[in-house]
């Protein structure tokens, strides 16, 4: 019962939409899924695999969250909304991890043994993130929405893109629950290349389209024609 109370308090602390203790306890799918998973995990550890899978399947039908009874989940895990979350058999989730809807902690094939990721403490997995393989995501890291992570992630890092690219953060912890303000290394690289092209065009006297996706303005219907007319 102490763990259930801790789960509810965690939701109240991290979700501004949480109104009251009993509302969270009875209506939040993430809390219900974790509660049922702990029962399933107990039976799994005591070699009652069939009963464990029955509980897991029932939890999936009720909540839309698919957690294999063999998965190990730490304390104060917060599954927000949770629809479409899939956590594999050998996955390990640390303490104070935040998981949004559509996250997958899966494998990459039919490997045996440890085949799912280990998520260390205080990691945030944003909506739609896919972490695939038997590697570790370091503590205090953040996986951007829609990212596909296929390689180990060092602590205090941000990962964005498909496939996921690591953006170092100089070991400074990232603010919690912020899925929007994450770096975009691909856009930054395009911006650097665009600046170099502009400088070369100036030196060569070439009059070409100047619009860049890195700019904070919307392009006209045909910016190249506008520049030619000018």
Describe the protein in words.
The chain has 230 residues and is of the alpha/beta class. The strands form three sheets. Strands 3-6-9-12-14-15 form a six-stranded mixed β-sheet. Strands 1-4-7-10-13 form a five-stranded parallel β-sheet. It has a four-stranded parallel β-sheet with strand order 2-5-8-11, with no helix packed on it. Helix 3 (29-45) packs antiparallel against helix 4. It is elongated. It is 34% helix and 16% strand. The protein folds into two domains: 2-168, Hexapeptide repeat proteins (UDP N-Acetylglucosamine Acyltransferase, domain 1, 3 Solenoid); 185-229, no CATH class. It has helices spanning 2-14, 21-27, 29-45, 49-63, 185-204, 223-229, and strands at 66-67, 72-73, 78-79, 86-87, 92-93, 98-99, 104-106, 118-119, 124-125, 130-132, 136-137, 142-143, 148-149, 157-160, 165-168. It contains six helices and 15 strands.
């Amino acid at each position: 019962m102490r763990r259930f109370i801790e789960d509810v308090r965690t939701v109240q602390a991290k979700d501004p939409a949480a109104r009251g203790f009993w509302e969270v306890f009875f209506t939040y799918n993430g809390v219900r899924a974790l509660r049922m998973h702990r029962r399933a995990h107990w039976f799994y550890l005591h070699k009652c695999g069939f009963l464990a899978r029955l509980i897991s399947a029932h939890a999936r039908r009720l909540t839309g969250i698919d957690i294999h009874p063999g998965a190990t989940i730490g304390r104060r895990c917060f599954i927000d909304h949770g629809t479409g979350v899939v956590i594999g058999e050998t996955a390990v989730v640390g303490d104070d991890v935040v998981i949004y809807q559509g996250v997958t902690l899966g494998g990459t094939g039919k490997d045996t043994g440890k085949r799912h990721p280990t998520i260390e403490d205080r990691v945030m997995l944003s909506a739609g993130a896919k972490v695939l393989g038997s590697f570790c995501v370091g503590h205090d890291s953040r996986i951007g929405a829609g990212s596909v992570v296929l390689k180990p992630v060092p602590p205090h890092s941000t990962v964005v893109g498909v496939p996921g690219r690591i953006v170092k953060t100089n070991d400074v912890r990232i603010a919690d629950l912020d899925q929007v303000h994450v770096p975009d290394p691909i856009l930054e690289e395009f911006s650097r290349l665009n600046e170099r092209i502009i400088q070369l065009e100036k030196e060569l006297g070439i009059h070409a389209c100047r619009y860049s996706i890195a700019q904070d303005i919307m392009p006209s219907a045909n910016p190249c024609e506008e520049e030619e007319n000018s």
